[in-house]
Amino acid sequence: KKASGRPRKSSKCQDRLLKRIQLRDRSATSAELAQEWQQAGVSASACTVRRRLLEDGLVSRRAAKKPLLSKKNIRDRLIFCRKYSEWTAEDWGKVIFSDEAPFRLFGASGKRLVRRRKGDRYHQSCVMPTVKHPDTIHVWGCFSSKGVGSLTILPKNTAMNKEWYQNTLQQQLLPTIQQQFGEEQCIFQHDGAPCHKAKVITEWLGNQNVEIL
């Protein structure tokens, strides 16, 4: 029986071509894809392009943010993975991990979606207030398989430097190690931030008999 309705503008082969074009450049817009598809002999609108991609499960979404890795970063991570690839859960249970992060005190640091009608773009309920220089606090914390340590909140608009970091380790890390591990040996992990790798910090940790991962 002959199918009813308007015939498709593209064949299955042409649909597969569109998919390959999209996967070659994930950020290409529907209009750009329609132009490139047209060069292959398919006259279709951006709307048709979106429908074809939706049929194949390719949905437009905001790109996820991820730290840019240099060749050195990739090499260092590979070395790290190979070095500790045979560690067991028991081995990792002896590690106390740490990290720090900044938090804005006014507004959100990312984007926010709202539902609005035409003409409501600047309605009070549809906008996200911003300021040029929002106040920020830095928070440091640590944890292990045995539990979490106390959070350290630096004074407002104060960035972590080697002086603040040493004070944080003295006031928070050492008591947490004593509470969670007692006399048992543990290993401390922190990232490669400049204040973490400062000579004075490395020497201080050594004097406290804190082994670094």
Automatic annotation (TrEMBL):
One of its GO terms (molecular function) is DNA binding. GO terms for biological process: DNA integration; DNA transposition. InterPro entries: RNaseH_sf, Transposase_5, Transposase_Tc1-like. Gene3D superfamilies: Ribonuclease H-like superfamily/Ribonuclease H (3.30.420.10). Pfam families: HTH_Tnp_Tc3_2 (PF01498). Residues 16-84 form the Transposase Tc1-like domain. This is Transposase Tc1-like domain-containing protein. It comes from Cyprinus carpio carpio.
